[in-house]
Specification:
The chain is an alpha/beta fold. It contains 29 helices and 21 strands.
Length: 825
């Protein structure tokens, strides 16, 4: 290949990489990750971003006028705050009149279906072959030559596809870059990136999946490689064959600003400020009370709790934590749902390992479940083989066109009764299956994770953890949460969900961790903390862990609110554990009553209704997931323990007085805050324009290739959340579409210093993708709101010095090595 050709190849690849930034990554639905669909626009202000995205992707960027009107009528938007936001933008008209104007200005345009007919033919052919190539084990007949890559495989089948115009297959060169060069030969170089942007944005679901696969470099990508250059080469060749003009309609960054967006931005900002001010005021009040309480017990013994339970920062944990604390002398804390251990995990029965950590991190360790009880293993294996064989037979019979009708006919009344039972009494079927499963040992009963370092590797990752790594992960957890005291029982509690017949089941597990449950990570951290050598090293670092503290693991089923604590405690703690389990059952009853009522059910039937929703294969809304999320509070649990935050806030434990260097705070802002912003943004955009950024109704969805869903029988992959995860009724959003409001309890200078080293986080704040408010306990508990460029605005008058003054000296903290800044979910 000549030097000139090589330069052209590199130029084209650079152009593709630049254009791809405007398309958000899409994860396979079996490992659903909640991410901002406009992540490629986060380098510009929110208002500009949604305008550019509307031009490129066609999606609305702000809630509808009906949503704003309902929020105003319900008092969720404070009128005085709204009038101030409108005045700042030069509007003094009545809010209701402006809503009417907003309604008129946002009338949707009627698309020219005839003009798009050829482009639709391109999409139909392309998505047919994309779904065949990107299939992850769902199809019974696989597309040939997938191991050669998408472009080569397409070249092999194109001549046999009658839908592809004559001449396309014969004209395809060997290289995808050559095909792109041929297609763009008549276009000036300045139009290359805009062409790529529009062609990638034509099917953002499929291109987002390709982008993620390329970045992930996982097993499916290794076996069946595909690149964005492959995709563009095929698409541009089809466009040429069908006579579709690919000249870009709008150059990069030239989209016109919509005047209606200014009004919508005022309403949105006022709504957010109304929510935020209520949370900030309550946190500030609790901060003052907390200071008084700590002063009163400074010289005395505050007493040890009976147990401490560490939950994920997930909004669903806020509900169960309130009810757990109400049942006894228990403390609850919030920490990253992967418990700070970035690992690849393989369960005993799992066919493949999964990354049990957020996508912003790479797994650093391989951990597997290893049997320790031979007898229990044998009983488990016998039962599992029977269920697996039966399930495989039924699956093949039902999905094979040649035998499906015969299967139903031969199965007769027994199969019909089974179907009826699953439909009419799903709760009883769940009870029967649960009872049957209980007869066989659970894998967690006879397995333990391979935490000890094995001096070997699996898939390039070290198996297990070294002593130094274990100490670091445990110390980091306690540093980030600000722990200095330990109860008799400490339970790290992961979370998972339980549903039937639900393509979006992984979206109800930890969305930030690619749909991985948190139980395995909880078990690993509990094993680490129980290690005598680790505990000794932790004491050397200032963590005085009593000899009678026992570390356990558990998992919170967010659909049924059942909390299972794994294993047994020593005889000395048996009564403590029995009492905890009994109290967790009480907490479950109260939490399910609250959750079921929010879904329109009878709270007196909370547990039964929650279990029915988990087992009913016709249930489109098994639980609300993270719907309603709007806030993220970083501070001691005492700030929020007396508050009912309605399951709308992420809660991360943090004590500024134990973090003199601000390392823990920097880790929280760089990790958990960023990931909660991802989650918040996906819920926001899926709500404001579900057709473009969501996935429509579950009733009309069709799963494809084990990677996503269609609406109907083909087209683009849907990229976001279904309507049932967001809407209480067709015209009534349950999720309130607000950008994330973060509240941090710490000296404002400490927060400024932490942000100074986080350029991407500052960019998010400066561009209004989320807000940040600090409640400063050293300045009379005043609140300061982040503006931009690391500057703050005080929210109330006080005689306390302004943020630029020297920071008051922090209370004396135990001497410890500073914890590394880690990114968490």
């Amino acid at each position: 290949m000549s030097t000139e050709s090589t330069i052209d190849d590199a130029t084209i690849q650079d152009g593709i990489d630049s254009a791809a930034k405007t398309v958000g990554s899409v994860w396979p639905i079996h490992s659903f990750v909640t991410a901002n669909p406009l992540s490629g626009f986060e380098d510009v202000p929110f208002g500009e971003a949604v305008t550019q995205a509307a031009d490129l992707l066609g999606g609305r960027g702000y809630p509808s006028c009906e949503t704003f009107r309902a929020a105003l009528d319900d008092g969720r938007i404070d009128r005085e705050t709204l009038e101030s936001e409108l005045a700042d933008r030069g509007y003094d008209a009545d809010p209701e009149a402006l809503i009417e104007r907003l309604d008129a200005d946002t009338e949707p345009e009627t698309p020219d279906r005839e003009a798009d007919a050829d482009a639709e033919r391109v999409d139909r052919v392309l998505t047919k072959w994309l779904s065949a190539f990107l299939d992850e084990g769902h199809a019974k007949w696989s597309m040939p030559n997938r191991d050669e890559g998408f472009y080569a495989a397409f070249r092999g089948v194109a001549a046999h596809d009658s839908e592809i115009p004559d001449g396309v297959a014969e004209s395809l060169p060997e290289s995808p870059i050559e095909a792109i060069e041929d297609a763009l030969e008549s276009y000036p170089e300045s139009q290359r990136v805009p062409v790529f942007e529009e062609q990638l944005a034509a099917l953002p679901g499929w291109t987002g999946l390709v982008k993620q696969r390329v970045d992930d470099e996982g097993a499916w990508q290794s076996a069946h490689p595909i690149t964005l250059a492959d995709y563009l080469a095929v698409r541009l060749a089809l466009c040429d064959g069908f006579g579709v003009d690919v000249e870009p309609s709008v150059g990069p960054g030239t989209a016109d600003l919509d005047p209606a967006d200014e009004i919508a931005e005022a309403f949105l900002s006022a709504w957010e400020a109304s929510y935020r001010s209520a949370v900030v005021d309550r946190v500030a009040a609790e901060s003052r009370e907390l200071a008084d309480e700590r002063s009163a017990v400074e010289s005395g013994d505050s007493g040890r709790p009976d147990a401490q339970l560490v939950f994920c920062i997930d909004t669903r944990s806020e509900v169960i934590r309130r009810h757990v604390e109400a049942t006894g002398d228990y403390e609850t804390h919030g920490y990253a749902g992967f418990f700070g251990v970035p690992m690849e995990y393989q369960g005993y029965d799992a066919e493949a390992s999964v990354d049990a950590c957020p996508p912003i991190l790479d797994a650093q360790h391989r951990v597997s479940e290893v049997p320790t009880d031979g007898g229990a293993k044998e009983r488990h294996d016998r039962w599992s083989s029977v269920r697996e064989a039966a399930g495989e037979v039924v699956s093949k019979l039902k999905t094979n066109p040649a035998s499906a009708f015969g299967f139903v006919e031969n199965a007769g009344s027994g199969y019909g009764l089974a179907l009826a039972a699953r439909t009419l009494v799903p709760g009883r079927v769940r009870d029967l299956l649960t009872t049957a499963d209980d007869a066989a040992p659970d894998g967690r009963e006879f397995c333990e994770p391979t935490v000890q370092h094995q001096h070997t590797h699996a898939d390039g990752l070290p198996v297990g953890l070294t002593r130094e790594e274990k100490v670091e992960y445990a110390a980091t957890a306690f540093e980030l949460m600000g722990w200095t005291e330990f109860g008799r029982l400490v339970v790290f509690t992961g979370h998972a969900s339980e549903t039937a017949n639900n393509p979006y089941d992984s979206s109800l597990d930890c969305g930030a961790c690619a749909g991985s449950p948190g139980g395995p990570n909880a078990r690993v951290l509990a094993e680490i903390c129980a290690d005598p050598d680790v505990r000794a090293a932790l004491r050397d670092r200032g963590f005085e862990i009593p000899e009678d503290t026992v570390f356990l693991a558990g998992e919170h089923n967010t659909t049924t609110d059942e909390i299972e604590v794994y294993g047994d405690a020593p005889e000395s703690h048996a009564d403590d554990l029995d009492r905890l389990r009994a109290d967790l059952d009480i907490a479950r009853e109260n939490a399910t009553a609250e959750r079921v009522e929010s879904m329109g059910g009878d709270p007196s039937e909370g547990v039964a209704e929650a279990e029915r929703r988990a087992a009913d294969w016709a249930e489109t809304r098994p639980e609300w997931g993270l719907a309603g999320n709007a806030g993220f509070v970083v501070g001691p649990r005492e700030l929020t323990s007396d508050l009912d935050l309605d399951g709308r806030a992420f809660l991360h434990s943090y004590d500024w007085s134990t973090d003199p260097e601000g390392d823990a705070l920097e880790g929280i802002l760089a990790g958990p805050m960023v990931v909660t912003q991802w989650i918040n943004a996906q819920y926001y955009f899926s709500t404001v324009d579900n057709a473009v950024y969501g996935s429509g109704s579950k009733v009309t969805q069709n799963p494809v290739g084990n990677v996503g869903v269609y609406q109907g029988n083909g087209g683009d992959l849907m990229t976001g959340l279904p309507l049932q995860s967001l809407m209480a009724a067709a015209d009534e959003p349950y999720h309130q579409p607000l950008r994330l409001s973060t509240v941090v309890h710490a000296p404002v200078e400490r927060v400024t210093d932490a942000l100074a080293g986080l350029e991407e986080v500052v960019q998010l704040l400066d561009n209004d993708w989320l807000s940040l408010t600090v409640v400063d306990p050293t300045r009379e508990h005043r609140a300061f709101e982040y503006e931009r460029d690391l500057a703050w605005r005080p929210l109330s008058e006080s005689s306390a010095p302004e943020p630029e003054s020297p920071e008051p000296e922090a209370p004396t903290a135990p001497e410890r090595e500073p914890a590394p800044a880690t990114a968490d979910d």
